[in-house]
Amino acid sequence: SILMERRLFLYNFRNLRKAKGRRETYLCFVVKRRDSATSCSLDFGYLRNQMGCHVEVLFLRYIAAWDLDPGHCYRITWFTSWSPCYDCAQHITSFLRSNPNLTLRIFMARLYFCEDRNAEPEGLRRLHKAGAQIAIMTFKDFFYCWNTFVENREQTFKGWEGLHANSVHLARKLRRILLPLYEVDDLRDAFKILGL
User: Fold this and answer.
1) Edge-to-edge, what's the strand order for the sheet holding 73-80?
2) Residue 83: closest CA among 179, 20, 170
3) Which of 33, 59, 82, 161 is the most exposed place for a label (fewest CB within 10 A)?
4) What are the residue boundaries of the CMP/dCMP-type deaminase domain, all occurrences included (predicted)?
5) What is the mean pLDDT of the chain?
6) How far, rounded to the nearest angstrom, does the alpha carbon of residue 51 sit from its chain's CA centroid?
């Protein structure tokens, strides 16, 4: 099926602050070609990790096989259950640099941080610097995904307890990650002056 089962979406996209046991990453996507003021949808669907291959790399392989026309502009929108790991962020950054006619927006349910090396914040910064628009999913984004990618049987999306509070918390965390480093240093200096 081109649509995701409700239980898979609700389990994997729940924006918990601590999401233990959720090891798979799901990626819902929309690909559009932009012609001046109009856009034309080319494809949509969802993917998940496969054995030994992260979902972001699977999508990049999928879209690379299209042999996109460099004379057209394309916009890809992702809704992911986890933010990209450092290595995937590097692959995405390279792909964006190789395809300047392509824009990418990534909406993430949760932020992923590998405990072993903690390189993911740098990967997100590089991705942002390469032109990817990255944000945390809000109720509106979950609602859109529910109506676009989920076999919902005409049921209205109902947010879970803590959805808004967790979105706000994660958005603040992401904003701190994406702050230019000189702003972070300025903030640290200001806190020191204030004795905080």
Assistant:
1) 38-48, 26-35, 73-80, 102-108, 133-136
2) 170
3) 161
4) 21-127
5) 89
6) 20
